Amino acid sequence: MPPPTPAPARTSDIWDVIVVGAGPAGATAARVAAENGCETLLLERAAIPRYKTCGGGLIGASLAALPPGLPLKVYDTARQFTFALNGRKERTLTSASPTIAMVYRSELDAALTEAAAAAGAKVRDSTALTSLEQQGETVTVKTNRGDTLRARAVVGADGSAGRVARYVGVRCAQVDLALEVEVPVDERTADRWRGRLLMEWGPLPGSFGWVFPKGDVCTAGVVAARGNPAALRAYKDDFLTRHGLVGPRPLHDTGHLTRCRRPDSPLARGRVLVAGDAAALVDHWSREGISYALRSGDLAGRACARLVTAAEPEASTAADHYAREIDGVLGAEMSASSTLMDLFARNPGLVHTALTRLPPAWRRLDAYIAGRTSVAGIMATPMARSAAVLATRLPFGPARTLSREPARP
Q: pLDDT tens-digit profile of 14-63?
């Protein structure tokens, strides 16, 4: 692979690319655009490094999408996976190829931002987008610092509730609320969790809780469809109490919404693209979003390199190409994960039994975690297809009620 072409010194008051948001999607888009010779500006509303609510588990697809040699501290690697059904039927399985790397999002995002800067992107943190509009071949961006900036292409990676997502008109099929704590643990507790993570299917439709070990800290939380925060808080309190994670004062105790894209949701508006959470690219079942962010950020950076040289008639072609790339890979994975989520929400006991008692099911999930297959690959197996059909025919329990959002203006 030839070395990247560094972004040249600026020769104009118009940037080639402005990226909004320095998370995994935005920092990756900025790096890739700069590597492709674009004069790139990366804006981040907070001071870097900054805290982000996130489990911080990097699956195989995420690790494969990181730039080579990225300096990133891994605090643990999951070798064992404990599954439980609302505190019952606990079973621990061992991975054939331990993969999930436990990191802190603040450190991951900072490392990716540094990689973007090393590729030639200019970084301005503590700078929030206040408005954007486009006319002809130029997008105008205004910031809270009073700047008026212009670019030939913009990538919105400012989160699922960001301004760019609203501007593009991103629509969501599923909206969930996640509640999370980061808890310091004593040596005995740290030893109990070292190398092992927990996934517990919860009492609310489509819900689960998790514990991710990171040395002397455990990241733990619960997630379910938005709409019943009191019930989710009660589940969180019970979950943390049962697993001995309520004693110490949490380092962080936060919540955030995760949004999953509707298949027909736009990914671009003119010369403005969205990636990562801003495009609502998140797995319906696991709510994993880092791998989607890294991969869509890479595609967005490459799409911008095409956009900056495109005259107005060709700009829509470049944006359409980006949308097709997203739909062809990430969209297919989200469609499969939506089917899996329907199966799980109807009968979590069936999913739990399959994973913990049927070795082929666990091997498939383990292969997905390691990056050797996708959710689409799992759901294409005869066993998964049969389970999905069975779940819709038998009265196992209530199907989930999705929290949906209207189209954004």
A: 999 999 999 999 999 999 999 999 999 999 999 999 998 899 999 999 99
Q: Are 164 and 154 in contact (CB under 8 A)?
A: yes
What residue type is assigned to position 232 of the chain? L
Query: Could you tell me if 38 and 16 are in contact, meaning their C-beta atoms sit under 8 angstroms apart?
Result: yes
Q: Phi and psi dihedrals of 15, rounded to 5? A: -75, 150
* 227: CB partners within 8 A, 6+ apart: 401, 403
CA distance 178 to 190: 24
Amino acid identity of residue 94, one-letter, is T
- State the DSSP string of 154-187: EEE-S-TTSHHHHHHT--EEEEEEEEEEEEE--H
Cβ neighbourhood burial of 196 (10 Å; 0-12, 13-18, 19+): middle
Q: How far apart are CA 214 and CA 102, in angstroms?
A: 6
8 A C-beta contact, residue 304 and residue 29? yes
- Residue 211 has a CB neighbour count (10 Å cut-off) of 21
- The tens digit of pLDDT for each residue in 166-199 reads 999 999 999 999 999 999 999 999 999 999 999 9
pTM to 2 decimals?
0.92
- 3-state DSSP call for residue 73? coil
Of 282, 284, 368, 314, give the one whose Cα is nearest residue 96: 368
Classify residue 282 as left (phi > 0), alpha (psi -120 to 50) or beta: beta
pLDDT in tens, 244-299: 998 778 899 999 999 999 999 999 999 999 999 999 999 999 999 999 999 999 99
- Tell me how far the alpha carbon of residue 63 is from its chain's centroid: 13
* Side-chain-facing half-sphere of 101: CA atoms under 13 Å: 17
